[in-house]
Amino acid sequence: MAGRFAPNQPTRTTVRGGHTPMPKAIPRQVTAAHTRRWTPPGPLDLGLVLGPLCRGPADPTFRTTPDGSVWRASRTPAGPGTLRVALRAAAGTDEAEAEAWGPGAEWLLEHLPALLGEADDPAAFTPRHRLVAASQHRRPGLRLTRTSLVLEALIPSILEQKVTTDEAYRAWRLLVRKYGEPAPGPDARMYVMPDPRTWALIPSWEWHRAGVDNKRASTILRAVRVARRLEEAAAMEPQQAQERLELIPGIGPWTSAETVQRSNGAPDAVTVGDLHLPGIVGYALAGDRNADDAAMLELLAPYAGQRHRAARLILLSGRTPPRRTPKMPRGDIGAL
C-alpha cells in the first residue's frame, strides 16, 4: 500500500516463563583491531560535534574521558562496535585519532569523517544577528555530525516525547543496560543498544518499570518493525528522511527533526513543537520570551537552509529567558 511499510517479520521463539531472551555478551578485546587517523578540514571541537549524541550523564552508549576522548557504542549495519575518538596536535593542526572494536569497527572508521562533520559546511552560514555572530565566533569548532544510523537517534528521541529529559534519560539507560549487549572493547561499562527484534520483545511491564507510557512504547514498537526501511532514510535528503519517519504513527515533526539532525547531519532541520525552544529563540533574537513556533520560524527565516545551526548557536550563547514558571512536572505513568 502506498505510504505504508510492510513490516519486517522477525522469527519469534517461545521463551519459557515469558522472559525476553538476553543477547549474548561479546568477548572483550582490549587492543583495538582497527585504527584510523583523519585530518579535519578546519577547527574541530569534539564536545560540540558529538555532544548531541549523548543522552544524559550516565548514557551507557556514550562517555568522555579526562584526556578529552569520546567513546561511542553503536549498532552498525555490520554489527555492534565501539569507537574511541581523540584529537591530537599534528603538524600545526588537529588530527582525529580513532580506534574501534567489534564487528562494526570497520564501518565506524569508514564513517568517521562524516561523524566528525566532514560533509558539513560551516562557511555556508552567515550570522544575521550579533548574538549569533558572537556565538559562532566563540565556537569555531562547531560542525554538525552525521551518524548515518537512524534508529540510534530515533528511539531515544521518541523516549523524550512529552516528558522531562531526566525521565527520558533514565528510560534509555535502564532499557539499554537490561536489553542491550555489552559493547566490544575494553570498557565494561558501555553497552550497545538492543537490536530491532529485542526492542520488539520487551514486555509491557518492563516499559512501565522504565517509566515509558504505552503511547511512546507503541511508537517504538511500530518503528522497529520497519527498521530496515527507516535506516534507508540515512541516505536520503533530510526533508525526504523526515517524511519517511513521519509515516509511522506517533512520529511527528519534533521527533523526525531531532532524529535527522543526528543521523543525516541536517543543517536546516529546526525542531518545532518543542516546549522551550521557541521562547529561547524569541528571547535571544527579539526579546520575546512568549514566542510560539510560528514566531520562531519567522525569526529563523533569514537562516533558511541553516536554521538548525542557527538554533544551536543561540542555545550555545547561553541567552535564555529567566525562568518564571516551574519546570515541566515529572510524569507518573502509574496514574494514567
Automatic annotation (TrEMBL):
Residues 1-24 are annotated as: Disordered. One of its GO terms (cellular component) is cytoplasm. PANTHER family: DNA GLYCOSYLASE, DNA-3-METHYLADENINE GLYCOSYLASE. It comes from the Bacteria. GO terms for molecular function: alkylated DNA binding; DNA-3-methyladenine glycosylase activity; DNA-7-methylguanine glycosylase activity. The keyword Transit peptide does not apply. InterPro entries: Alkylbase_DNA_Glycosylase/TA, DNA_glycosylase. This is 3-methyladenine DNA glycosylase. Keywords: DNA damage, DNA repair. GO terms for biological process: base-excision repair, AP site formation; DNA alkylation repair. It comes from Streptomyces lunaelactis. The keyword DNA repair applies.
